[in-house]
Amino acid sequence: MEGTVATRPTPVLSADPDAIATAIRCLAAGGLVAFPTETVYGLGTDATNGDAVARLYLAKGRPSFNPLIAHIADLAAARRLGQFDAAAARLASAFWPGPLTLVVPRLPGCGVAELATAGLETIALRVPDHPVAQAVLVAFGRPVVAPSANRSGHVSPTTAAHVLADLGGRIDLIIDGGPTPIGVESAIVACVGGTPQLLRPGGVAREEIERTLGHAVARTQAPIPSGDEAPLAPGLLASHYAPHSALRLGVKRVRPGEALLAFGSALPEGAGTAAAVLNLSEDGNLIEAAANLFAYLRALDACDAKTIAVMPVPDEGLGAAINDRLKRAAAPR
Ligand code: TXA
Ligand code: MG
Predict the structure, then answer these.
(1) Where residue 227 falls among pLDDT bands split at 50, 70, 90?
(2) Which residues contact 109 (CB under 8 A, 6 or more apart)?
(3) Ligand 2 being an ion, which residues bring their Cβ within 5 A of it?
(4) What domains appear along the chain, each with residue ranges and CATH number?
(5) Would you say the CB of residue 147 lies under 6 angstroms from ligand 1?
(6) pTM for the full predicted model
(7) What is the pLDDT of residue 326?
């Protein structure tokens, strides 16, 4: 398995026109290039190149039944890959470019490798709102599949340093465009006939999606399976975003030796004895909290406390995405 993954040190280039040109040459040759989006760093490869997609699954250690998001520069490019019903068209025009992924029926002959969509008849499409991602997609002119640029099951990367720590030596290039502004992955909505379904809470809040549609979305009710089973809905592996330390959620009292992931200004009892404290947002701002989430999980994980105690986070707006990621990080594995 290792033999087919790059083992040279991975260059990190700061995002400028030369770096973009290097990225394009690399993608055209079937290489694996990490680049920033407004949500998290993605690990991109040519969506139409089946061998490249296979190497991407290998580099991430990702089960190949878990399909990838195809990234394109605009709605016109998206319409060449998938079929948009009225709801999908409305959501795309309201939120693209931006942190929303739409799952729609895949157009036959769209050119995206079967492996990228794991043999499904649907395809996940996203138009990212980040200058580096946009520059890459416009210059490459073909769809780029890009899962989050972390080893499968790890916390998603919000800086180039996170990508290097997880995937250095396994991928061909990292484009450093600074920390990603939103910090949690895109919301995923399936528009495949019937009521649109929110498959993953993310960078666009459910409330905003429902306001745009003028009605409620269906939510995934399926029980979240463990990491070893085939997921009922792809991507809903229970143990995802997993740090090494255990997580204890909704904490009102910190136990001795725990690290504390705080939210808001009123710290819980016992906070003074915590091995380390990081506050997602002292002002209780959910946007700031989302941007800090993965970096703070990584940092607290690195301080080797047995448990990270996490204060409650309100389940509204971006809080729903934060709580979803925390629940997955806390799931038994
Ligand atoms: O913000 C994001 O969406 C980031 C950046 C890099 O764009 N990407 C990302 O990709 O989070 P990934 O691969 O880590 O998560 C994609 C999710 C997976 O849970 C996958 O199962 C789901 O999208 N997915 C992909 N295609 C699907 C499909 N046809 N039907 C249902 N779910 C799908
Ligand atoms: Mg991911």
Answers:
(1) very low
(2) none
(3) 148
(4) 12-219 (3.90.870.10), 246-330 (3.40.50.11030)
(5) yes
(6) 0.90
(7) 94
